[in-house]
Automatic annotation (TrEMBL):
Keywords: Lyase, Metal-binding, Zinc. Its cofactor is Zn(2+). Belongs to the beta-class carbonic anhydrase family. It is an enzyme of class 4 (lyase). It catalyses: hydrogencarbonate + H(+) = CO2 + H2O. Pfam families: Pro_CA (PF00484). This is carbonic anhydrase. The lineage of its organism: Bacteria, Pseudomonadati, Bacteroidota, Flavobacteriia, Flavobacteriales. Gene3D superfamilies: Carbonic anhydrase (3.40.1050.10). Signal peptide: none annotated. Its EC number is 4.2.1.1. SMART domains: Pro_CA. PANTHER family: CARBONIC ANHYDRASE.
Amino acid sequence: MSSDFYKKILDNNKKWVENQLAIDAEYFKDLAKGQQPPLLWIGCSDSRVPANEIIGAKPGEVFVHRNIANMVIHSDMNMLSVLDYAVNVLKVKHVIVCGHYGCGGVKAAMGNQSIGLIDNWIRHIKDVYRLHEHYLNTIEDEEERFNKFVEVNAQEQVFDLAKTSIVQNAWRNGQELTLHGWTYGLNSGYVTDLGVNMSSNDELDEVYQLKFSN
């Protein structure tokens, strides 16, 4: 069964190439010349949340970083490297943090079951719950509380993006850059703008505003 699947995905690749070339004979030659995506997408690793497909984007239009529960962690060199390259080299104009309802990482953070190594990652999500514990605990319906936790987690990751020296330095230099927080509905296909759209240091709590020496 697994070998059939492997053969299938190789065949799918050939069909995809043929289809693209039938539309545009120069498609891959043009794509190989470089990338200038206007958007960095920070999303969940969940296989049901494909960045390009959700927003109808073509290859070359979205720079993507994905991890469990779309987290922005200040010590994560992988995420920071992607962010630095996107902002300072590719000069993206938008960064979207997209959470999704039904997120397994967020669900795990609501409980205490040990899963393994991922427990250490889940702890960062638990920290978000603790930050909003009073509000979340007032929601009696567990499913509704789960959905709201997905939303506040995505919002907090936008704030954490704004706290990075990478983003703040870009804003200080007058670079056009806006951060957004979204959630995606697996059962509907629609995204929801969570209303956290930040485009300057002034929108960040003063304690997090970095002072750069000239």
